Amino acid sequence: MLCADYARDVTFTEPAATPLALLLLGQGSDAGSERGVDCPGELPPASDPTLVARAAAAKRELGDRVFVLGHHYQRDEVIQFADVTGDSFKLAREAAARPDAEYIVFCGVHFMAESADILTTANQQVVLPDLAAGCSMADMANYQQVVEAWDALSDAGVADVTVPVTYMNSSAAIKGFTGEHGGTVCTSSNAERALHWAFDHGEKVLFLPDEHLGRNTAVLQMGIPLDECVVFDPHKPGGGLTGQQLRDARMILWRGHCSVHGRFTAENVADVRARIPGVNILVHPECRHEVVLAADLVGSTEFIIKTLDAAEPGSSWAVGTELNLVRRLANAHPDKQIVFLEKTVCYCSTMNRIDLPHLVHSLESLARTVSGERAVNRIMVDETVAANARLALNRMLALPQAPAFAG
Ligand code: 13P
Ligand code: SF4
Fold first, then answer.
1. What's the CA-to-centroid distance between 89 and ligand 1, angstroms?
2. 258 alpha carbon, distance to own chain's centre
3. Does the beta carbon of 188 sit less than 6 angstroms from any atom of ligand 1?
4. Which tens digit of pLDDT belongs to each residue from 12-67?
5. Whether the bond into 209 is cis, omega within 30 of 0
6. Total domain count for the chain?
7. Residues 83, 131: one domain?
């Protein structure tokens, strides 16, 4: 999407994090969270010089039994073993399109592996190489909070005309709630189409759990006025909103954000413009509204990749998304100047949990697993939850396809 020249200022304050929003050390468990628990078994040491050869050998031995999916934010050391790379939408489709693979190894984060489990057959097993690879954004909406939010909408008399739309970056339980209440999943590459679908089915949208993607899509792509968007804060009674505010709003945005994309600021944009004359600013729609307004182009991970692939040699770009991807793009396009939008390092810490030792551990364990036995680090979604979540995911997969090159 192209950024319109909006003059509105939107202020953003960090929402209070759900306790244990990040499980950085991979120890212990948090059953209330979307991510998994600690990783069982002995990991090979990261210093083992044979790790690449071990991963290749285990993958070769598994042959067609395994299919490896790699999200664009994964480390290079992992992405080299992916059979397909993609954004979360493409990977969900790829998972659903591989019914013959006994194992889907998902190099990404927990909510992606859950979605893959929901979309694959009962005979297939989905493996997340590190069960602690969660997502802090997904953890900002838990099932009980969403039930309470829906109660607040009912009390305000608007639940019947509200359609829930949840970003892919949410737990299976939230997707299940969404499916059960007539809503759809969306990703950053189809959020506009999902919102059109939702407004065809209701008058208001409850958008979970990323307020920025919801606001950016509603305001910049759908033309919904900013003052018809309200933010529901799950840490405040009634979301911090009056019944009248809920009745007046068209977009009810959940107060959640990505800890990576939420770091970019409008000052970063101004700094880079001052440093690099003629630079194009390209950002992901999980960035704050004021950052998107200050940028030149905004779009999903796939859009960012395609934009840079098509860019003129000699052009300059500052990119506001996860650093593994920006570095890979800079290396792939030495004829273009591609820099990171922020000066400090900005990896997604949970995406980065999937490293070569964890991948080797998963692949070698799978190679030793007899067909039908439970795989190591298997992600399994409860079938009742999965049935409702599948409704919401299938509604997304049935949305009209994106044009080949759209943000
Ligand atoms: P996409 O893969 O939809 O671009 O989302 C980015 C992201 O933050 C994934 O966690
Ligand atoms: Fe979650 Fe953001 Fe990391 Fe994506 S980049 S997994 S939204 S924290």
1. 8
2. 9
3. yes
4. 344 444 333 333 333 344 445 545 455 666 789 999 999 999 999 999 999 999 99
5. yes
6. 3
7. yes
